[in-house]
Structures are given as structure tokens and as C-alpha cells.
Amino acid sequence: MAKHHVAATVNGDEVEFLCETEDTLLDVLRDTLHLTGSKEGCSSGDCGACSVTLDGRLVCSCLVLGCEVGGRRVETIEGMASGDTLHPLQQKFLEHAALQCGICTPGFLVASRALLERQTHPTETEVRYWLAGNLCRCTGYDKIIKAVMDAAVEMRRS
Amino acid sequence: MAPTLTTDSEVGQTFVGTRTVRPDGADKVTGRARFGADFNLPGQLIGRVLRSPHPHARIISIDTSRAEALAGVKAVVTRDDFPDQSSEFVPAGEMMMNYKDVVRNVLAREKVLYEGHAVAAVAATSVAIAKRALKLIDVKYEVLPHVIDVVEAMRPDAPVLHDDLFTAGVEPKATTPSNIAKRIEIGHGDIEAGFAKADVIVEREFKTQPVHQGYIEPHAALASVSEDGSAEVWCTTQGHFIVRAHCARLLGMDIGQLRVTASEIGGGFGGKTVVYLEPLAVALSKKAKRPVKMVMSREEVFRASGPTSGATVRVKMGATKEGKIVAAFAELKYQAGAFQGSPVQPGVMCAYAPYDIENVKVIGYDVVSNRPKVAAYRAPGAPISEFAVESVVDEIAKKLEIDPVEFRLQNAAREGTKAAYGPKFGPIGLTDTLHAVEKTNHYTTPLDPWQGRGVASGFWFNIGGETCCSLTVNEDGTVSLMAGTPDIGGLRASLAMVAADEMGVPYEKVRPIIGDTGSVGFNFLTGGSRSTFSGTMAVVEAARQIKADLCRRAAKLWEVPVEQVQFENGSVKPIGEAAEKAKPMTVADMAKVAGKTGGPIGGYGRINAQGAGPSFGTHLVDLQVDPETGRVTILRYTVAQDAGKAVHPSYVEGQYQGGAAQGVGWALNEEYIYGPDGKMQNAGFLDYRMPVASDLPMIDAIVVEVPNPRHPYGVRGVGETPIVPPMAAIANAIENATGVRFTELPMSPPKVLKALKERGLNKPANGKGTNGGPAGH
Amino acid sequence: MARVVLVGNLTQLTDGVAEFDLPASSVRELFQLLGERHPALGPHLQEGVAVAIDGQIYQDTLLEPIEPDSEVFVIPQIAGG
Asked: Does domain A4-79 have CATH number 3.10.20.30?
């Protein structure tokens, strides 16, 4: 069975790749495009470590097929900073020590950015429920929530 | 002899105790940091493992010929590729590990002992080919009856896992093989006499299920073996020196031939202190003469890597009406999984550690059953025994109508108290944490019906151990720091802060890395809450060497006696009679003339850190029980724990919050669910339900500091204690809310609802919840 | 003479004797003396035990000094996860 040829935009760059029918977007990102920032925690869409946005919509890349993204726009953790400048979420995660081992961090950052793009003034409960699809085993979520709420304040200011 | 390192008097604390940004932070928030599965080598093969579908079976034969013949398959390994290991116990922390068992857990030999047990492994040019190759391996099994539950496994008629396992620790000596590997006992005093003095006695039996450490990053390893027999391994691990030792031993290599690099690690909690994939990857790479990369799926992590024990625990305690505990007994039966070595020993030692009790007797049993071999999980053994003990403590306090914190204060271990496991405690912070909790606004906030409040305490011994750390002063005065214990969350920041203060240089000028096994001397693994405690001691030692060296060099440059040179605030300066002879020189100034004054400047701390101080903690939780669904919602959570000295307060708080969250999951939802066929039914994150952000409130972390006199900064390890109190605190709060004492974990909605229904309490109008106020008593 | 107490299953190798008074001035000497009195105990002392001297726990050290009036406990080794 021949591979699929796919052309898409990843973090603003035009990319082309070949993939098997069963390859997930996560497989393609990590193994073909060498963007290893998105992580594989469960392959069943339960942990959120593979979170990316597809045409602006938050998805688990382990639940999207590589051949589904032709002509579409993918944004991963690698595209979050602008040059040397970290996104306010990235900066706040560091200031609040919202990461310990850091494996879930890319997923949380992508998911949080998707939230703050829709809701500039989220309550703590809204943040917690939006991020309920991202598992963290190290932090107990406390400092993550504080970082996201603080980033929201920062982003409202600018 | 291990010197008691004290920090030199001129060392200030500019950075220690502050909340710096961690040096590995930028890479972690941008996706640049490389975890176990993020490494690749050109020409690498993909490795996959064939696993047993049966919980217990004899292996009649393994035929790999069809798999080997498949195009794209470059190597297949089975038990024949690993020499058998003689029965030899080596220390592996709190469990003695037997290499005979290790080699059999890595690949089954005579029998498969759990569903998921590895039987063979292949390396192929693609994932698809590897998967197909597994299907072509023919294994003939003789299926045997299996046993899962610990009490079932102890019965004389239970299916026996090992023909050569005889119960140790019993008189007369055992002559028939058994699933009971060991019986242990500790105690002091006379518990019969103690119970005779008691006005109130409570006896309860508790049951817990195995729970998994739940690290988000699955096991991953990449091995590359050269034609001359040397090898390199990259893997996610808590102890790369331990991986090196195990692989060398299992494959008959010299330790020095094997170089292991620890990747960034996506969680471990004890579960990554053992080997699963690494020896397989090395063996495959050796055969294929190409690098081999192996990664576990989430399902494999659940089915084939060690959770912690499930257990049955009986506790009996007696107290006088004045509130003094006079007798304490416990019998712990812990499941070890397929091979002996549960954490029943530390469970036994920890059970009554928070209390000063005259008469104590604790018995423990280590029992094998057809489940994955247990691995360490954060304070191994203690959460289970403390769940039982702290629940009974609460019941006794309630019967005596004494406030639960006051009752604990009355009986608390203090400096000089003889611990249940023998020695007297040095300075400890248990009472400080109890007072801290008592003083919170949390403790006195009124509760509504169906809400309850619970408190519980706990502890972990903490350890030191072999640690090496090198400090190198670069030509421009920056400092390179190489440590050898993997950083699981904040270690590099803490080490850099101590190095910066010791050397008097800015924090940003210290660059810490974790060296591989070829670059730095032996380091025991990251575990036992030791990495900050031991690592900072090694940094102090290395810094001290550098400072002494800089003084010697300056003395020669200035032509003054070395006694008239002093290091202070990042500079060497002449003092006393020599005071006017020269201007002070900073570390950077000295670095510029390093070559001219003798060569590169560096220090190497190589120690076996002793003097670890125990960390005590007390947890306070408010929760709400929904009588219609049985769901328990955590409303408020406070942790007070003794850190000795918090080098980086944010990461200390993070340990308190993370451990508490794991305890919440252990208390309310997490468990391995087995069918009658001995197979795990919930091997995924959907049904193995760990807490998510919407399950928890903010977790208030109170850092108590009772300095550890044996550490230059007073540091105590903190990582493990936080998982010890939560289950009892939550059970106590549920009792406070409903009047129902739960003795089985998890207290998941179906179980809570069933218990409420049995008592006719499941309609909000019927029972109003028995909570009567702040302390519920 | 230091007062030495064995904790846990080690007493099974000493016919139940748990307490000793021994003129040991270091951990190494202590293990030697115990091993001489109870040969079955010897190998177990090399690996898998920790020693608490006057309340301070030491693991994996032979050279630690023991004072004439020290209280010493020999306990199972501990680590963590």
C-alpha cells in the first residue's frame, strides 16, 4: 500500500511528508518531522501530553491521523515562543514553578493557550475544567492553575 | 569517616531559600528538553516485546524461527540470550533484590508469572515489521491455576509460584514451598500488658489494592553496542548507575564498558528504579549490530511494570482514657507480585513511627502472587501501614472525645523518643506540623452537612548515599556543575543555588548538568528523598576544595603565607599583616590566570552522605460526600511538613502538593481491577482513574523548618512523606461527614454509595451527615 | 562497652539474642565481633543493614566510630522510591 503524500502548515512553515494510513499526527510530528516536543503518554487520548491545535482547535494528536491534516494548520509547542521571547504562559509556568518533571508541560501550555484565546477572563473553575484533559502526576495542579490565571492577567494587560 | 559538613562561616545565603527560575526551565517549556523516547540514532531498529497472555503458566517451548526469517527482523532474544543468575541477594534499597529473580523478570525462563510477563523481544527495521514478528513467535504454554489476592495466596492450598521459595523468618524452618516469602517482626515492650492497661481498644482490618506510580512518560531506552563490546544506553531512569550495574551483570559485561546517559525523566516516583527494557535493548543491539530503540505503550506500563503492593492490614491499638496510647499492634500482609520483595519491611518500621508508645509489636508478611513484580512507589510500604494506623488513631480519639490533633500531640514522637524500629529520634518536626495545622483558618472553618474534616500524620526516614558532584571554574569565571543523580523536578536549580552561594558567584553563572556514568563517579539513584540532601552536600565539599585551592594560588601570586589569605563573598583577599599587599581577586579574576597558577580550577565532591533526617508531615482535608452518587469531592487541603531547610521553596511546596494529589487518587479512585482470568481490566488512563485538575482544589503547603543538624544547610529530604498521610486523612474526613468508617481502598463512588445504602443514608433527606463541627467530635 | 541491639529478623540468626554489650570502636569492628559470636549472622551484616549510632542512622559505612557508651541499633536497610 503506497504511502500518503501530505502537505500542511506546521508552526507557520509549509511542510510535506509521507505517511502510512495508520500513522497518527503524533507519529508524524515526532518521527518524521522531528518535532519531539509533543509527547506520547497513552496513545488513547486520555492524558493530553500530545496536545496540539489543528486549525486553531485543541486536539490530541494521537487521535488524529497524519493523512487527515493535508492543507490544514498545525501548531505545536515548538511554535509557541516568538524567537527569544517566551509566551506569557511559558514565562509564568517558569515563575510559578508549574512544572516538576516537565513531561506534561508542552500539553498544558498548548491547552492553556487555546483556553486563553477563547476566554480572556477565566475563573479558577473554568481553568480546571478546561485542563481536565491534561494529566499531571507531579504537581497536584496547584501551581499550574496559578500560572495560567496569572498569565491571563498579564495577557489582558498587554 | 564522614565529616559533618558545615557551611563555612563566610558563606551568605543570597540564593538558597529564594524562588529562582530553574536552569532547565527554558528547554522544558519549549519542548526542546529530551526525554527517553526523544532520542534517535541513525540506522536504529525498533524493538518490541512479546508478553505472556496468561497470569501463570509453564513455558514448554519458544520457537522464534519464523520471526527470525521475516524480512526486516535483525535480532530476536529469549531467555537463552541471558545467562542464568545464581541466587544472590544484593541490596536494592529497602528490598533485597535477587538477581535470579531479576533475570527472570526481564525475560521469563521456566514460567510466566503474570499477564504481561516478557517472554521474547525482537528488533526490526520498522514498527510494523516488529509487530508482525511478535505474532510469528510460537510459545507453547501449560496454563496453571493462578492466584491474585494476598490472603488467597497465603492459603496452604494456593497455587505455588516458585518451587524453591520457602518462608524465611519462621521457626521451625519451612520445608514445603510457599507463596509467603518472609515473615518479619519488630517491637519493644509487652503489648499484652499494654492492652491490659487500656481503657479503650480499637481493632480493625484494612484492605488496599495495588496502585501504579502513574508516571506520564512510559519506559524508553535506546542501546547501541559496538563491535568491541562497549555499549551506550540512553534511557529514562531514576538511576543510570543502577541501570549500568544491572545490564552489566545480566549480560556479563564489565561495568566500565557500558556508558549510560539518563535522559530527562517524565516522572518515576520509584517505578523507574529498576530495569525492564534496558537489558533487552542492549541484548538486541549486540545481536543486530545496530542501535535498538524500545518504548513501552501505556498498556504495557500497566501490565508489565511494577505497581506497589496491595495489602491486608490488621491494626489493634489501646489507649487510656487520659489519651495515652499504651499498646499498638499491627499485622501487615503485603503483595510482592511475581517475585519476592514487597516493601513490607519499611511498612512495618513506619507504622507507628510518629508516636511514642511503650509497647509495640508489628508483624509483616511478604507474599508473592501472579501480578507484576512490585516496584517502589514513593515512601514504599508506609502509605499502606499509615492508612491503617492513622484511621484507628482517629477512631480512638473520637471514642475518647479528644480532638484528633491534640490526641496526636499527646502521643507524638519528639527529639529523644525511641522509634518503634529502635533508635532514638534526633530533632524532628512532627509536633511543629501538628501545631501548624491547628493554627490554620482551615482547621476552624465551619462545615455544612455531608461535609467532613480529617487529619493524619506520616513520615519517611530519608536517606543519603553515594554521591559525586564536580564543580569546574571556566576561563571566564562561570562555573560548570556536574551532578550524577537524575533531576526529577528542581534538583539542578537547588544545586546551582548552593554552588552560587558557596562560591559567591551569581546564580546565572552556574550551569548544572547531570553527567552520564562515564563522566562522573558512582551515584546512587534519585529516590529515598536524597537528591537535594546528598547533592548539596557534595557541592559544598567541591566548593570547599576550590576555595582552598584559590587561597593557595593567591598566596603564591602575592607572595604571602597562605594563612593570610581568605575567601569571602566570591573573592580571595589578603588579611592580617598582608592586608595591604594586594587587591582582592574574584573567582573570575583567578580563572583568567588559572593556567599560569597551576592549571584548571575545579573541585570534586565524592561522598557517602550520612545524616539524613526524617521528614514528618500532617495533612488536613475537607471534603464533601454526595449521598446520591457516592462521589467524594475534595474541598480544601492543607499540608504541613518539615523540610529542615527549603533550598528552593517552590519545589519543596511542589513535592507536598504532588504527593498529596497521588494520595487523593490512591484514596478515592485508583486500583488495579482484575477479572477472574487474572488479567488487568483497566490498563489505561481512562479507567485507571488518576486525579485531574477539576478533581482538586488549591493545596496549601506550609513549609516547617526544623533544621537537620547533620546537613550544612539543615536540609531534610521531602519528596516521599507527602504521600503517606492522605488516605487516612480522607478516610477520617469521610467518617466525619457520614459516620461510616471505610477500611477498604479505594473509597470510590460505587463503594461509598453501597455503604451509604446499606445504612439507609443515601438520600440527602435521610441522613444529614454526622459532622458536628470543626473537629467533628 | 557499646550497647548493641538487633532489630527485626536478624535475631533469628542469633538464637533470639537481641541485645549485646560489645567493645567495638567502629562499625567494622562491630560487625566482626557480632560475626564471631554468631557466624550465621556475618554475611547478612555485609549487605542489607543500616546502623544507628546514638540515634544517627548510617548506611553502607564501615569506618564510622562507635564511642564506649554509644547506643547502637542494627536495622534493616532503607531507601525509598
From this structure: yes
